Amino acid sequence: MELYKYIKVEIDRHICKVVLARPEKRNAFTPTMVNEINHVFQRVNGDDAIKVVLIEAEGPVFCAGMDLKTFEDAGQDEVNPTIINENISLGEVFERLYKPSIAIVEGNVIAGGFLIALGCTYVFATPDVKFRLPELDLGIFPFQVMASLLKIMSEKQVLQLCLDTGYFDFERARNLGLVDGILDRKELDVLIGSFENKSVRALKEGIKSLRAIKSIPAKDQFTYLKEVLDNLKRG
């Protein structure tokens, strides 16, 4: 893999581990970090040996969201010249990943950090982890996070969560669907191992089609999915 500035990447058998590696800034993401994650994901999409992606983080905070200074002043970010740098949102980066992903959360998730958790197929966290959307206290609003929240909860729940700027705990996060369960390394290893012998083509086509049907009229969805299945069977 390429040398990255804000993340670390490790590939082992069918697993690609991506580690947020900006602990001194609470892993707040910059435009470069977003592009680095996107670069890894596109390489993962093209590597049929990789069947699952793990997202972890260094330091006591999983992700504190967007580093506003670097988005407002590009000069405060450190561009990675070895990759293509696009004007792309973190939510869109996760939409472009066509392999299952698992967030391993051992630190607090704040603001835009929700985009990572909500972008993953599975989220497992330690019981002491807390979550917060503080944007309204800063005179802004969690606009991008709203789009991801709508995938798992009602519009009313999304609005209430965005209006409540305090921390909330693991249990509330699990009840809302933000977290799938308590982090148990043995159970996690079993889940990760379960992907090893899965068809990578079936995984990719399944995830792609699941995302595609959102923009297809209901009357055409089954026709579209049958075409995908027929193409898959034809090899």
> What series of H and E elements makes up the topology?
EEHEEHHEEHEEHHHEHHH
Can you give the helix content as a percent range? 40-55%
Average pLDDT confidence is 96
Shape: globular
Distance between the termini: 29 Å
Described by strand count, sense and barrel closure, the largest sheet is: 6 strands, mixed
H/I helix tally: 10
Radius of gyration: 18 Å
Query: What class, by secondary structure content?
Result: alpha/beta
How are strands sequenced across the largest beta sheet?
A: 1-2-3-5-7-9
Beta-strand residue fraction: 15-25%
At a glance:
The protein is α/β, with parallel strands linked by helices and 235 residues long. The protein has helices at 31-45, 68-72, 90-95, 114-119, 143-149, 155-163, 170-176, 185-194, 200-212, 218-234, and strands at 7-12, 15-20, 52-57, 61-63, 101-105, 108-110, 122-125, 131-132, 181-182.
Overview of this protein structure:
This is Enoyl-CoA hydratase/isomerase family protein. InterPro entries: ClpP/crotonase-like_dom_sf, Enoyl-CoA_hydra/iso, Enoyl-CoA_Hydratase/Isomerase. It comes from Sphingobacterium tabacisoli. It is a single chain. The protein has 235 residues and is of the alpha/beta class. The protein has helices spanning 31-45, 68-72, 90-95, 114-119, 143-149, 155-163, 170-176, 185-194, 200-212, 218-234; strands at residues 7-12, 15-20, 52-57, 61-63, 101-105, 108-110, 122-125, 131-132, 181-182. The chain has a six-stranded mixed beta sheet. A three-stranded parallel beta sheet has the order 4-6-8.
